[in-house]
Amino acid sequence: MTMNREFLINSILAIALITVPLIALGMDEPFIITLATKVAIFAMAGVGLNLVLGYGGLVSFGHAAFFGIGGYAAGILASHALNYEPIMESPFLIEGTTQMIIIWIVALIVSALVALLIGAITLRTSGVYFIMITLAFAQMIYYFAISWPAYGGEDGLSIYVRNGFPGINTLDPISFFALCAVMLAIAMVFSAVLIRSRFGLALQGARQNAQRMTAVGIAPFRIRLVAFVISAMITALAGALYADLNRFVSPTMLSWHMSGEIMVFVILGGVGRLFGPLAGAALYIILEHLLGGVWEFWQLPLGVLLLLVVLFARGGLVGVLAGERKHV
Amino acid sequence: MFSLFLEQLLNGLQSGVMLFLMASGLTLVFGVMGLINLAHGSLYMIGAFACAAVAAWTGSFWLGLVASLMAAAIAGALVEMLIIRRLYNRDHLDQVLATFALILIFSEGTRWIFGSFPLFLSVPDFLTGTVILPGGSQYPLFRLAIIVAGLAVAVGLFLLIGKTRLGIRIRAGEADRGMIAALGVDIDRLYTIVFALGAALAGLAGAFVGTTQSVQVGMGEPVLILAFVVIVIGGIGSIKGALVGSLLVGFTDTMGRFLLPHAFATFLDPSSATAIGSALASMLIYIVMALVLFLRPSGLFGATS
Questions:
Q1: SS3 state at B73
Q2: Is B285 inside a domain boundary?
Q3: Residue A154 domain-assigned (yes or no)
Q4: Is A228 part of any domain?
């Protein structure tokens, strides 16, 4: 019964994400399409975080680091390509690019390496230490981006022309939305398959009882580290898309407010639910748009709402609408 | 060069002492109640704004200082009784989110009341001068006063925890909450007192630092994160660890920013030495934190869990 209701809610969310921009296209409202694109991208960042936060029980407060790394991958590669300056000339030539596919691959590789390093240190700890240390590492990268002048420092870096994708005019809002929505769908399907795999079961097992996992011969550390890296890669991909959406990347993408916001998407929607991040991101953007239009200080009611959700509506939007989560 | 070095050492000490005022409250709240409080930076901000507003209204910095203590303590006590109390038995994720929500509420509320423009606090007249340091350079008297005041508060806190009845209860609360409740200590009131005490210390730090910088919304967040680094290095829940961590972070940060560009200048051209040196300096305390954690995952003075 609850499973069916959750399936119904998920279907409504998916259909809404696709139809709203199409209606906006018909009504010639490109701003709405941009909002929907933002929802898709934020949801994807949340899908990444949900993997460790929801399924792994690891409260990473530093996912803005990976979001920003993806963003800077797009910004740096594009700026080199547009200025015709190679990134490196010796020992071998590396040039910038405006091809999203190459940017995504770079974002995935760099974020995976950074996550491997951060994860290897942070996952030695647990609980509050893990929260604070992931936060601190993200801040370290944030301050590095601010004080490193080569790529704009505090002012950020503009991407003058949105990067390209073969066969698509990415400057067209609805085409770029479609690209982002497809990427979100891939991330969600991948996440769903992963959660049901042996690996996913081990990850959830490690959340529920790490000692028992160790006893049956599965090392929680390695499982968690792999999950942390995959989670970072998904979030970095979302970051690369976000930089292309705004055609701008700045240290704000790396800030701890961003980490908090990604976490809010996951929690508002429902922790450990496949569609939770989408529901949360959509709710967040709608609130931002509606409240922000009425009152300059819209984050005040947002804070109150978030507080009420945490105190009284555990399980978030999907949780309230669909009831208790069933065990996988 | 020597006098500049001495000046930077004093700046490091000042930043360490201010960090201790922040970190001690954070670590007490975690040690006694098991709560991670992101909104601690908001209490720091409230202290600074209360001081600036009251000092501007009455013309007296001292009344402003009293106001900063009162406002932060009252805000802390209210928040504890209304919201935080419901979070003690929740997991850390709920605590992080609820206190993140509190930051949004406090920051936007303050911006609503005071506007986005920074306020400025002026130093009381008899503390405005400078003192001559050995080596000949001048150092603002007020900064020295802050160091002395901060150290005095730190000593007072250690005496409070170590020598008074309240301190015994706080330490007992850290050791075994259930037992001291069973022995007849009003645990709810103890929690409110501890939270308000931590809030007052943060508010005081906010007023002090607000005098040397500007008072604005969001001023608490960088300090909050530094305070996190401090208590992670020192060991969460340990006041002694908070002191050692604060001084370590204060000195490392200040001296790193001062010395690293000089160090790189010995083998690089000046402009890239400044760029690399300052970029590395901004990351230095996090590198120190990573090293400490690598060697001791629960911090220097943390209980091994």
A1: helix
A2: no
A3: yes
A4: yes
Q: Can you give the residue range of the structural domain that contains B40? A: 2-217
Which ipTM was obtained for this model? 0.85
Strand duo B130-132 + A248-249: pairing: unpaired
Structural domain harbouring A136: 2-322
Q: Is A137 on the interface with B (CB under 8 A)?
A: yes
Question: Does residue A165 lie in a domain region?
Answer: yes
Which of B25, B36, B28 has the alpha carbon at shortest distance from B174? Answer: B28
Instruction: Check CB contact of B236 with chain A, cutoff 8 Å.
Output: yes
Contacts of A140 in chain B (CB under 8 A): 283, 286-287
pLDDT attached to residue A221: 93
Residue B19: per-residue pLDDT: 93
- Please tell me whether residue A165 adopts helix, strand or coil conformation: strand
Q: Are B50 and B208 in contact (CB under 8 A)?
A: no
Closest by Cα among B2, B74, B83 to B37: B83
Contact B270, B260 (CB under 8 A): no
Q: Report if residue B13 sits inside a domain.
A: yes
Take residue B215 and report the two structure tokens written for it.
Answer: 């008072």
Residue A34 or residue B117, greater confidence:
A34
Structural tokens at position B269: 């051209």
Residue of A nearest to B294 (CA): A121
Closest chain A residue to B111 measured between Cα atoms? A297
At residue A1, the pLDDT reads 47
Structural domain total, chain A: 1
* Cβ-based contacts under 8 A for chains A and B: 118
- The larger pLDDT score, comparing residue B248 to residue A124, is at B248
Q: Specify if B257 maps to a domain.
A: no
Mean pLDDT across the stretch A230-249? 96
Residue ranges of chain B with per-residue pLDDT less than 50: 305
Q: Which two tokens stand for residue A218?
A: 């599965």
Find tokens 């005071």 and name the residue.
B114
Nearest to A17 by CA among A318, A259, A261, A286: A286
d(CA A98, CA A78): 5
pTM passes above 0.90: no
> Is A224 a domain residue?
yes
B290 located within any domain: no
User: pLDDT tens digits for B78-135?
Assistant: 999 999 999 988 888 889 889 999 999 999 999 999 988 888 887 777 778 888 877 7
Inter-chain CB proximity B108 and A131 less than 8 Å: no
Report helix, strand and coil shares of chain B as percent, to nearest 5: 80, 5, 20
Instruction: Supply the pLDDT for residue B262.
Output: 84
Chain A environment of B277 (Cβ under 8 Å)? none
Interchain contact, A129 vs B297, CB within 8 Å: yes
Q: What is the pLDDT, as a whole number, of residue A328?
A: 44
Which pLDDT score, from 0 to 100, does residue A87 have? 77
